[in-house]
Design goal:
Layout: H1 2-9, H2 16-28, E1 29-31, E2 37-39, H3 50-61, H4 67-74, H5 78-85
Antiparallel strand pairs: 1-2
């Protein structure tokens, strides 16, 4: 039992920050079967395409639609459409 008590009081792994940085670097680039390196895009995929992000601005400015109506047509919140306007 004494060895378990000593292990539980031992300091955390000292290379924790280094291991995290190594993992992030490995996640950022992927090597394919041919040896080619491709950069990965991190984060959540956008719900709206580039065209769908331009269209609500036009609909609000030209047609005078409300943000809530535009958001309903794209199945997103009015806040998401509001962020496009900024």
């Amino acid at each position: 039992m004494q060895s378990a008590a000593v292990w539980s009081r031992s300091p955390p792994h000292r290379n924790h920050g280094c291991r995290i940085a190594t993992g992030r670097a490995a996640r950022t680039y992927r090597v394919g079967h041919s040896g080619a390196v491709a950069a990965l895009e991190l984060g959540r995929k956008p719900k709206l395409t580039l065209h769908q992000r331009r269209e609500p601005i036009r609909r609000r400015d030209v047609l005078g639609e409300t943000l809530a109506d535009i958001a309903r047509s794209y199945n997103v919140t009015h806040s998401a459409i509001s962020r496009l306007m900024a």
